[in-house]
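Hey, resending since the last one bounced:
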Amino acid sequence: MYIFEFGFDVAEKLKKLEEKNGNFGVKKGEILLKKFPDGEFYARVIGNIENENCVVVKSIYNSDELVKTILILDAVKRSKAKSIMLVAPYLTYMRQDKIFLDGEALSAEVVLKNLKNYVDKIFLINSHIFRESGEKTCYGIKIYNIDAFSEIAKYFKNLKNPKIISPDEGASDMAKKCAKILKCESDYLIKKRDMVTGKIVTADKNLYVEGKDVLISDDIISSGGTMIEALKVIKKQNPASINLACVHGVFCDAENFLMLRILADEVVATNSIPNKVGNIDLSNLIAEELVKNLIKK
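The structure tokens again:
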């Protein structure tokens, strides 16, 4: 089995797991990937992978990365791989998974149907299109959604007096997962619409976090505006510390990102997207989930 990976260390983690779970014949694949002066990309598989099972591990966090990934998958497919699995810790364009207005494009369907042309199965991590982990079929393609909140909880295992807070009720199930691992309580903030401005704001709520080491967790932080409001509400309640964590750290607003780091004692994300605080490596989690699926076969 060839592993083609970009920014992760899944092949080495899989080799270690082989000791307990049998030999999968893990080998690191090599791809020549380059960019031409006009901005176009080029991909070529180095070596013979004919009739081999292949896994491509690559985050797809913007349009360029999507094009790169499609070219990589095409190169692997044209090299006559036996099977291809794609692990995309972050997959862009998934947030438009419903039609709200006439004439809109359904970006999630467009991207997934395109990837379906190349792969047998896709592994995603805390994808926007699924709230629950496990395998589902979407637009005719098998998708396995992996939950990474266990990795966030492990990262904060040394908090002395933790309490987990989610930014809204919709994300409270994620907070409960972390709380179960850390053996502590959880709660959630309440969002409401300002009747004057029409904006969604975070309401004041007594979270009983005085003297607590608060961990506020979410699946994704984009601009960070909502999370700034949440941190301000928590900070007024005199916690011992405030720790902010997310699976996918987009952090597309530089000023808001700076404010998050001022308000929180620690800001951390996984490495599903390259960012300055991506200190939680997902390589081992990905390897473990691949092993589960390989054993099922």
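The chain has two domains: 2-147+282-296, 150-280.

Sorry for the duplicate.
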